[in-house]
Amino acid sequence: MDWSIALILTQDGVVNAAIYALLALALVLVFAVTRIIFIPQGEYVSYGALTLAMLELGKTPATVWLLVAGGAVALAMEAFAHFRGRSVPWREALFWYAALPLLTLAFAYAFDWQTTPQWARILLTVTLIAAMGPITYRIFYQPIAEAPVLVLLIVSVAVHLALVGLGLLIFGAEGYRTEPLWDDRFSVGPLLIPGQALWVIGASLVLIALLAWFFSRTLYGKALRATAVNRNGARLMGISPNLAGRLTLLLAAAIGAISGVLVSPITTLYYDSGFLIGLKGFVAAIIGGLASYPIAALGALAVGLIEAFSSFWASAYKEVIVFTLIIPVLFWRSLTTHHVEEE
Amino acid sequence: MKKPVLKSLTVALGVAFAAGAAWAEVKVGVTVSATGPAASLGIPEKNTIELMPKEIAGEQITYIVLDDASDTTTAVKNTRKFITEDNVDLVMGSTTSPNSLAMIDVVAEAKVPMISFAASNRIVEPVDAKRYWVFKTPQNDHQMSTAIVEHMVDSGVKTVGFIGFADAYGEGWFENFSKVAEARGLKIIANERYNRTDTSVTGQVLKLVQANPDAILIAGSGTPAALPQKTLKERGYRGKIYQTHGVANNAFLRVCGKDCEGTFLPAGPVLVAEQLPADHPVKASAMEYVQAYESKYGKGSVSTFGGHAWDAGKLLAAALPEALKKAKPGTPEFRVALRDALENVKNVAGAHGIFNMSKDDHLGLDQRARVMVQIQNGTWKYVK
User: Fold this and answer.
1) HEC profile for chain A?
2) Which CATH number fits domain B141-267: 3.40.50.300, 3.10.560.10, 3.20.20.140, 3.40.50.2300?
3) Given pLDDT bands bounded at 50, 70 and 90, which one contains residue B23?
4) Which residues cross the membrane (chain A) (predicted)?
5) A20 lies in which domain range?
6) Which end of chain A has fewer CB atoms surrounding its CB within 10 Å, N or C?
7) What is the mean pLDDT of residues B52-64?
8) Is the pTM of this model over 0.80?
9) For residue A184, what pLDDT band results from cuts at 50, 70 and 90?
């Protein structure tokens, strides 16, 4: 191996790491606020990428109907809760479960998306997938929000399997690629840097900065942080845990969709490829102990680089090497962290 | 009062049984991988079952189709269900080699003949006590490897690089291909693996480009096989690129785009049925399948994978009249007769080739079952 190859591998690893970092941040966020280990995170990546691909091909993605159907179920659950005598935040419920899905549906059918500019398609895709976040929370997690972490994890696995199955039904078994945002290539020394790679890294950095700003400067961000620190304390301060849950999954779904849109011009994505990408984000999140954002981001960088270099040296064992990484980390974690009971 | 009732009941039952025997139908249990990783192969196979003959030699044929989700355990479970609950006369499937291999024990134990849609030669070779009951329709990797090596040698290739799936498909291809290549004096100077779900193969491709072989063979199936090819072009590889018949569907062309121009691959004749010369032995039977499929599912929808299921239907149609002469459907004797008839089919023209089964050959395809194809202007072009 010479320097030029090492540089190319590093470049490759960093681009992948940028996506893993985004997903790791989303996973840490969801776990901190809601205690859900969010396995379906990867599905938002593949849904985002494939929805965009459908729009590019001039087909109306069936994900929009999934969104409307999910919204209807969520609304029915709210109505049920209402008749059981619970107070329901109807204004928010109507916006998230009825108005937004129907608006997205109207937009999806109003235009010939094959001829619109790429940014408009991306905007529709991200809105569509992000809107699935609060609905997912309302249907699957809100009724069991107080359940132990293990129950939440099992529900996550179920949601993941359901979404993969629906993905096959909606998108079919074949993979898709989307058009790159920036088709130019730049040569820097031995490196050939595609414009899309710069987009991926740039967008990830901007998104991370935006999240940092959101959590330190805005009221909703502070409310989420408060919930993450102490759920009961936050509730006493008037922060609704349901609102926090919806908001968290909105962010997680949006991050997933953006990751999908960013990565789909670089590689072919399938209805089930989100899981593995999400799993590598999960390894990074574990390195950060599912708690620390900066360490999770560094963990993502490590995962990306190790993946790139092991694909060069021992391609048959690449996944084994990446996932074995988690063992020493867990070992070290279990030695250094003191377990604190939740309740 | 009681006796007449009992009598009439007995009579009624007797009539019902007699009617049942007279209406005996041939039952075929089909398990395909319509979901899961092999779905892009399993779905056209499932579609093809609907086109298969519902009546052969005056006998009703019922197809019971189950999905095994590309999962070995489910495939075995489906097969047991066919045998114990449905009392089938023949089992077809499954889509993938691991599934089909696992089903062999079950059908051999129950003495039910089976026709697999999967490629591995281990499904029917060697024909031992268990494989006595098993047949298959897709060409062996070995046959396809020979076609590739022949084409490489003819175009002056001396050194070859290999990149394949890190699973049974890639390993099987490497085993077959390296054997044939060595025998013909080709040197394999790089050997890499990647996963179907990988988002990047830069590391492997850098190694291949560094070795700089005259040609590279990519052993992947479906659209995931496009990733190494795109990366090879990106890294400026200029040699010849070969793919396997696992990529022969239109989704691959769409994903790979202009990066796949000029790629060679071996395939069943059905892929280029329209371009075959009129005197090609498989042209007519391949066109029959293409027309049957496209008239139901739309122009350009046909894929080679469904053709394997179609050929299983052709084998059944050829063997059934012979078996019916010997026994009634639904009986163990009939299953034995059907197996014997399948082993003796001669010159059955299917979508992929001409089948001539024998005691030692439960595939029955020869060199007529493959053609070399090149990708030109985003379509498949028959070259030889």
Assistant:
1) CCHHHHHHHHHHHHHHHHHHHHHHHHHHHHHHHHCCCCCCHHHHHHHHHHHHHHHHCCCCCCHHHHHHHHHHHHHHHHHHHHHCCCCCCHHHHHHHHHHHHHHHHHHHHHCCCCCCCHHHHHHHHHHHHHHHHHHHHHHHHHHHCCCCHHHHHHHHHHHHHHHHHHHHHHHCCCCECCCCCCCCEEEECCEEEEHHHHHHHHHHHHHHHHHHHHHHHCHHHHHHHHHHHCHHHHHHCCCCHHHHHHHHHHHHHHHHHHHHHHHCCCCCECCCCHHHHHHHHHHHHHHCCCCCHHHHHHHHHHHHHHHHHHHHHCHHHHHHHHHHCHHHHHHHHHHHCCCCCCC
2) 3.40.50.2300
3) low
4) 20-42, 62-81, 93-113, 119-137, 149-171, 191-215, 247-270, 282-304, 316-335
5) 3-332
6) C
7) 90
8) no
9) confident
